[in-house]
Amino acid sequence: MKKTAKHFCPHCQKEVSWQDNPHRPFCSERCKMIDLGSWFSENYKIPGEKKPSEDEDDN
């Protein structure tokens, strides 16, 4: 018998079927979109040095 690992939705922590799941690693389209919204609203950030924006003058 093949042993399968348990996977959990990063947003709601429900157990997720990995195989044949079009939303993986999420459990649903809803959780996937909530996560995407968090990236867009900058709730999630990747650590590193801040680059100057194009609006800032280099003079």
Q: Can you put this structure into words, describing what you see?
A:
The mean pLDDT is 86. Strand 1 (7-8) and strand 2 form a beta hairpin. The chain has one helix and two strands, in the order E-E-H. Helix content is 20%, strand content 7%. The chain is an alpha+beta fold and 59 residues long. Strands 1-2 form a two-stranded antiparallel ribbon.
Number of strands: 2
Helix percentage range: 10-25%
CATH topology of the domain at 7-40: Erythroid Transcription Factor GATA-1, Chain A
User: Quick one: biggest sheet?
Assistant: 2 strands, antiparallel
Q: Any idea what the CATH superfamily of the domain at 7-40 is called?
A: Erythroid Transcription Factor GATA-1, subunit A
Order of helices and strands: EEH
Strand order of the largest sheet: 1-2
The fraction of residues assigned to DSSP E strands is: 5-15%
CATH class of the domain at 7-40: Alpha Beta
Mean pLDDT: 86
Quaternary state of this entry equals single chain
Give the structure's gist in a few sentences:
With 59 residues, the protein is an alpha+beta fold. It has one helix spanning 29-40; strands at 7-8, 15-16.
Q: Mind sketching the topology for me?
A:
Elements: E1 7-8, E2 15-16, H1 29-40
Antiparallel strand pairs: 1-2
Binding site for Zn(2+): 9, 12, 27, 31
Family: Belongs to the DNA gyrase inhibitor YacG family.
Protein name: DNA gyrase inhibitor YacG
